[in-house]
Structures are given as structure tokens and as C-alpha cells.
Amino acid sequence: xxxxxxxxxxxxxxxxxxxxxxxxxxxxxxxxxxxxxxxxxxxxxxxxxxxxxxxxxxxxxxxxxxxxxxxxxxxxxxxxxxxxxxxxxxxxxxxxxxxxxxxxxxxxxxxxxxxxxxxxxxxxxxxxxxxxxxxxxxxxxxxxxxxxxxxxxxxxxxxxxxxxxxxxxxxxxxxxxxxxxxxxxxxxxxxxxxxxxxxxxxxxxxxxxxxxxxxxxxxxxxxxxxxxxxxxxxxxxxx
Length: 239
What we know:
Its main location: cytoplasm. This protein has eight helices and eight strands. It has helices at 2-16, 19-36, 45-56, 61-72, 103-115, 144-153, 177-185, 209-223; strands spanning 80-87, 93-100, 120-122, 131-140, 160-164, 167-172, 194-201, 228-233.
């Protein structure tokens, strides 16, 4: 599991370097979550999860409030949730999640990003079966044994716990995201180094050094697209 955490760190570091882009993506996601349910995180679980994730990226309160107020104001702006699957260089696999108000534009842009960077689009289901949906939550200042005991006491169903340097990472099914965080809060933990709903590859692959640049260009091209929210892959970039 440690390699999976390394991939998430690489992804987060990349996004931290592009704050305006990540803030815009979170603004859209918060709006969609608030629009689909109540614009109150206490009664809208999906919105609560998005806001918890946004905290780990230091999304400004003004952006969060603006997105929620837009949903409250009855905006008729609507977005479709789309998932694309594809292949990159050296046997790499990718999943691309998007929120879009123009399906044709997004499909064309994603296909072009793949085609111009050594990849190609796959059909639905061609890649996703090699990934598992997961909640990944990390904290600092606690031991692996302490957290395992806590999760057992709180009867939280988790998949794995891994110690990585000063961070302890808990892996669980997506529906356990809130339960894991609530368990941590009984220890007084309110700040998380990572809080993600993600797709984890069942098996990571390595790319030769000479192929990494092309793969990273493909990732950047996809993440730079306005409609793309998340890009998941099975490449161990930390090697």
C-alpha cells in the first residue's frame, strides 16, 4: 500500500503547485454536490465529504461560500458526471473523471489529450476493473497501533493501515470516509494530511526513466482540461 500513498503524494504535490486550477475544480464540485442535495453539509453527506477534502488543499472559504451560495440561489447551471478510460505509454492505465456542461467538448478534449501524448482512449470498462474505489485518510502524530485499536473500538471497517514516515494512512471503502474521520475526532484529530476519495490501482507498474516525461505530459494535459476533476493511474511515479 505504501506505493499507492506515494502516488497520492505526487498527485497532491502537483496540484498544490497549481492552486488556481485546483480551487476552480473544487468550486465546481462543491456547487454540484450542494445543488444535488441540501446546501448544508450537516444534511448533505456528499457535500460534507467534498468540504473535508477541500480542507486538505486549503481551499479558501470565499470559494467554498461562493459555490454554496450559487447553489442556494437556484442557478440552472447543470453538469454531467463523466468517466473516461484509456491507456498511456508503457502499459499504463488511466481513469479520467469529469464534470461538464458540454459533453461533446469534453469528450473531444480528453481524446485529443490522449492522442497527442502517446495514449489512446479505451471503451467503458476497459480499465476500471483494474482499480478499486477507496477512501484514503492520513494523520500525523499518531502511531499505527494506536489508530488500529481506535478503529476496532469504534467498529469502523477498514482495509489497511500503513505508516509512512510521520504519516499514518488508513485505507477504507468510500462509504467509510466519514466514519474514519469521526473516529479520529474522538482522539482530538481535526486536521488531516490527506483526505481523498480515489481510485487505487490493484497493481502499480513502473515506467522506464525515458518514458516518464511523456507519461507526465499526458497527465498534465488531462489535468489542465477545465472539465476534468480527477485523473487516476497505475504508474508508480515515486520510483
